[in-house]
Design a protein that fits this description.
Largest sheet of chain A: 5 strands, mixed
Number of helices of chain B: 8
Largest sheet of chain B: 9 strands, mixed
Structural class of chain B: alpha/beta
Radius of gyration of chain A: 26 Å
Shape of chain B: globular
Order of helices and strands of chain B: EEEEEHHEHEHEHEHEHHE
Strand content of chain B: 15-25%
Largest interface: A-B, 29 and 26 residues
CATH topology of the largest domain in chain B: TIM Barrel
Number of strands of chain A: 15
Helix content of chain B: 25-40%
Strand order of the largest sheet of chain B: 5-1-2-6-7-8-9-10-11
Strand content of chain A: 5-15%
Bound molecules: iron/sulfur cluster
Oligomer: heterodimer
Distance between the termini of chain B: 37 Å
Number of helices of chain A: 28
CATH class of the largest domain in chain B: Alpha Beta
Helix content of chain A: 40-55%
Radius of gyration of chain B: 21 Å
CATH superfamily of the largest domain in chain B: Aldolase class I
Strand order of the largest sheet of chain A: 3-4-5-13-12
Number of domains of chain B: 2
Number of strands of chain B: 11
């Protein structure tokens, strides 16, 4: 801390910014030397005094004229990892948006121009026209580069650039190219976690027509999709937000459409098949399931999960959609539910919901603070619980605050509501801006409370002061208490009524407090899954769930006891109450012993049953502890070992040690379940 | 009310038999197979699992709660140890309680053709106590399978027959069991005949000693009219449990090569044998 402030006082701020920007560029491009980055990096800084939106347009124009792209690849993907758009100080970037690529594919820039002519806000129209011009400039730049390529593929691509900007794609191949082109632009302007959306639904009409008119075969279509997936995955490092792999590029499959019919077509199967074969961490799949999801889709999904690539995450769409409507989303819109990169529901093409912009609330930290801070004696567990709720409420309120977000005249162009309202995407253009908060480590807090209740108040084995001392000493000299905390009775994840009641009680409480919090004038949602289970836990001392100082929290909705197996945790999760505002992602996360993979039919039945009973979402790792231990010791033997981390998949070798160890520990715990 | 003596209940079993099943392990068995991997199910007494590795006394420590523990001269039974050092092997359930646990997965049973498997121990030894539960399960049309050695009173088998859809019959032809006498064979033959019309899976735990008795095995199987059998390689899975019960045990782990040879031999004698891997 001290060193930091000394550096700050000696080095001028602009130089610090400069360093920071170059560090960012070199993190995105680990293959390049510092010198190369200094020479080649293009940094587009904000201009002071400009309207933020105008400045965006200016930066975007520069980007489109300066950026370098390759044209020798199967698809042209104009994302230059060496070009960086810098946001003004204090402005938060936009994350995890899924535009409606179905509409984008059908978009015609000429028509959009005409629509803009009719706008009453001329500044708005000028800005959007500026965006259109830049897109056109980039596309014609690509076209002229393609002119000089003398390959068969370049010849095909020349027919798309720039014509595709002004028409609905004529083939699946063109549709994929157009989708990739715009996707790359969203990344290039510095938006992160760009979701791909419902590609089986969106691309099907092009696929179907190509097949019907015998333009391509099914195998050729699969090959095109393979190229698309690999193109999206080639810049994983530059796209990753925190850990490598955390890009938020999800392809959504299945689920009902506006007409209530479930999408399950040949492309749904092809995507599942491709991910099973490719076994790559990025992009990833999310599958929306309901009672109509057919057997073949289920079977292929199970096969895909069994490869341990972590895809697809299953979203049990009925409870998700019903609760979204109850919260305030329009019933007409929820059929187009997608997620924010990982699991937090939003509406594709309509949401500017930022579902993870706050620090996660930590119920365990608050419990520790309460116990260690007041030295009070409590007459009963109920009294302690009441005191706990008071401080927990403070923590919950403290995480939510207003945020100045980046703008996006680029998204504005492709979100119908923005043009209709003549407002920027983040400034009232998108019709939904329900941001979301997250709670991390609730399972640990529940276990700590259950332990206190039993050990201190029911069995009187230790006093609260003993517990406090043990926490302060990180259990040194209190090994007996430590073992007891881990061994004792009721645990999060069991279907014991007391456990379920306490969990639901606290979840309802969280919901209640959050319902009076607002962000930028809108009500917010809250969820019980969070990526912060390692980072935040580092700052939390020993706790009465039997956790030593700094050890990670439980991951989302998952057991931290070997007595709880997959059946129990699924039962438990289906009995939690997700109504009200408690919809911001509630994922059961479990590591299945690989024996389940040998019985795919039965695993399928277990998962289907859990959906019938009402879980919210589910992601699975299929791993053996032994493999993980070996992989940690001999990384070179396992270059392709993929694991599911919080809501994305990553190569095991790319993970920081704390995450590797946490996975090993969990695999061990669940193997005995 | 007759209580059922249960050692454990496993939901979501995917390895054993049709569909996804819930297996109920019942206590009590008249045989003492040296390889038994659930030794706590053999005796009908309530034995106690004692996990010495968890006990603080063994680590030369004393928790505050240890002072009142019977191990340290106090009153508290070891089964009340908050570290879970002592654990009762038997849990007593009324048929109603068991039923409530079993029907949790009724949807899953229906979807997969699964159901409930009564195993043990020898489940037939609690036939009488099981009847009210079996009646309730059948009212809900739940598939019921018994995993049994058929070494039980004939009456017991007859009592459960109307409710059973299937049987996994575990043959005891290993020389260690010394059951080649005519009494065992006669009884098994009679009991096996009663299973007519039910789904039957035949099973034999393979120990190395069987290799030298392969002709006898074939002749018994022929006599019983068995054409298909699953062979299960004997593993030393129960070691930790013997230790926790304070019982001596011998490691009967079998040789993979021998089981393959044995398997091939049975096949050559027109008995469809298959290796079951768990
Ligand atoms: S209470 Fe008894 S059994 Fe438990 S740790 Fe202490 S001495 Fe061992
Ligand atoms: S028959 Fe089964 S339960 Fe009984 S001793 Fe043998 S292996 Fe164990």
């Amino acid at each position: 801390m001290k060193i930091r402030s000394i550096i700050k006082s000696v080095i001028p701020a602009f130089l610090l910014d400069y360093c920071r920007e170059y560090i960012q560029l070199s993190q995105r491009n680990p293959a390049f030397t510092k010198r190369k980055i200094l020479c080649r990096g293009i940094i587009l800084r904000p201009r002071k005094g400009n309207d933020q939106r105008d400045d965006f347009v200016r930066q975007f124009a520069l980007m489109c004229s300066k950026q370098r792209f390759e044209v020798g690849t199967y698809y042209v993907y104009p994302f230059d990892t060496m070009t960086l758009r810098v946001l003004p100080r204090g402005i938060a970037g936009i994350c995890s948006i899924t535009a409606d690529f179905g509409k984008i594919l059908k978009s015609d820039l000429q028509q959009l121009r005409q629509t803009l002519c009719r706008c009453s806000d001329k500044d708005f129209a000028t800005r959007e026209n500026g965006i259109i011009e830049s897109i056109e400039r980039l596309a014609s730049g690509i076209a002229s580069r393609l002119e000089s390529e003398h390959t068969e593929r370049a010849e095909v691509l020349r027919t798309y650039f720039p014509s595709m900007l002004y028409r609905k794609p004529q083939t699946l191949d063109e549709a994929i190219q157009k989708q990739l082109f715009y996707n790359a632009l969203f990344w290039q302007v510095g938006h992160r976690h760009i979701g791909l959306g419902r590609l089986d639904k969106i691309l099907y009409e092009y696929y179907e027509r190509d097949i019907r008119e015998s333009r391509i075969t099914d195998t050729e279509a699969k090959e095109l999709l393979r190229h698309m997936i690999l193109t999206l995955g080639k810049d994983t490092r530059a796209k990753s937000v925190s850990l490598i792999g955390d890009t938020g590029q999800y392809i959504l499959l299945g689920g009902i459409d506006d007409d209530e019919r479930t999408i399950q077509n040949r492309l749904t199967l092809l995507f599942l098949e491709l991910f099973t074969e490719l076994n790559i961490p990025d992009p990833k799949l999310i599958l929306r399931v309901n009672s109509e999801t057919n057997d073949e889709v289920w079977s292929r999904a199970i096969r895909c999960i069994s490869t341990s690539c972590g895809s697809p995450l299953l979203m049990n769409e009925r409870p998700v959609m019903e609760n979204m409507v109850r919260f305030g989303y329009d019933a007409k819109d929820v059929a187009q539910v997608g997620t924010s990169a990982c699991w937090e529901p939003l509406i594709i093409g309509k949401s500017f919901d930022q579902n993870n912009p706050f620090r996660s609330a930590s119920p365990l930290k608050v419990l520790n603070d309460l116990l260690l801070g007041d030295n009070k004696t409590y007459a009963s567990f109920e009294e302690l619980l009441a005191a706990y709720k008071t401080v927990f409420a403070g923590e919950l309120r403290s995480v939510v605050h207003d945020i100045d977000f980046d703008c996006s005249p680029l998204f504005t162009l492709f979100f119908d509501d923005c043009i209709r309202r003549e407002k920027d995407f983040t400034q009232g253009g998108a019709i939904y801006a329900y941001h979301g908060a997250q709670v991390v480590g609730l399972p640990n807090a529940i276990n700590a409370l259950l332990n206190i209740k039993e050990i201190v108040f029911e069995r009187h084995l230790y006093t609260l002061d003993d517990c406090r001392e043990a926490m302060r000493r990180n259990f040194a000299g209190y090994e007996d208490l430590y073992s007891m905390l881990l061994a004792t009775g009721k645990k999060y994840g069991s279907t014991d009524e007391e456990v379920i009641t306490l969990t639901n009680d606290l979840m309802e409480f969280v919901g209640e407090i959050m319902s009076i919090c607002m962000c930028n004038g809108e009500k917010i949602k809250v969820g019980f899954s969070s990526p912060a289970y390692v980072a935040l836990a580092k700052q939390v001392g020993a706790s009465l769930d039997g956790r030593k100082a700094g050890e990670p929290f439980a991951v989302h909705i998952s057991p931290i006891s070997s007595a709880i197996d997959i059946s129990k945790i699924l039962d438990f999760a289906s009995r939690l109450n997700y109504t009200g505002n408690r919809i911001n992602g509630n994922v059961v996360d479990f590591i299945l012993p690989s024996a389940y993979v040998r019985q795919p039919e039965k695993l399928k039945a277990i998962l289907k049953d859990a959906c019938d009973k009402g879980i919210f979402e589910l992601q699975l790792n299929v791993l053996d502890k032994q493999t993980l231990i070996d992989a940690k010791a001999h990384p070179d033997k396992y270059p392709n070992l993929i694991v599911r981390v919080w809501g994305f998949s990553a190569y095991f070798n790319d993970l920081p040690e704390a995450f590797q160890d946490n996975l090993i520990r969990r695999a061990e715990t669940y193997a005995t379940a | 009310m007759q209580l059922l003596k249960v050692t454990s209940i496993q939901r979501g079993c995917v390895y054993d038999g049709r569909g996804v099943r819930t297996t109920v392990f019942l206590k009590g068995c008249s045989l003492h197979c040296p390889w038994c991997c659930n030794p706590e199910t053999i005796s009908t007494d309530n034995e106690i699992f004692i996990d010495e590795s968890k006990c603080l006394k063994n680590q030369r420590m004393q928790g505050r709660f240890c002072r009142s523990c019977e191990r340290c001269g106090g009153e508290m039974p070891i089964t009340a140890c908050p570290l879970g050092v002592g654990e009762n092997t038997v849990k007593y359930h009324t048929p109603e309680e068991l039923y409530e646990i079993l029907i949790k997965d009724i949807g899953l049973f229906a979807q997969t053709g699964g159901g409930v498997t009564f195993s043990g121990g020898e489940p037939l030894l609690q036939a009488e106590e099981l009847i009210p539960l079996l009646q309730k399960l059948k009212q809900e049309n739940i598939d019921v399978v018994f995993e049994t050695t058929l070494v039980a009173p004939t009456d017991a088998l007859i009592r459960v027959l109307p409710y059973a859809d299937g049987f996994i019959v575990d043959f005891k032809l290993q020389p260690q069991m010394k059951l080649y006498d005519t009494i065992y064979l006669r009884r098994i033959k009679a009991h096996y005949a009663l299973l007519n019309g039910k789904r039957i899976t035949n099973r034999l735990v393979f120990v190395n000693e069987l290799a030298a008795h392969r002709e006898q095995v074939v002749s018994v199987l022929r006599e019983l009219g068995i054409e298909r059998i699953e062979l299960l390689l004997c593993h030393d899975l129960g070691a930790k449990k013997y230790e926790k019960l304070g019982l001596a045990h011998t490691d009967c782990s079998a040789d993979k090569k021998l089981i393959i040879q044995f398997n091939n031999y049975l096949k050559s004698k027109n008995i469809k044998a298959s290796l079951l891997t768990i």
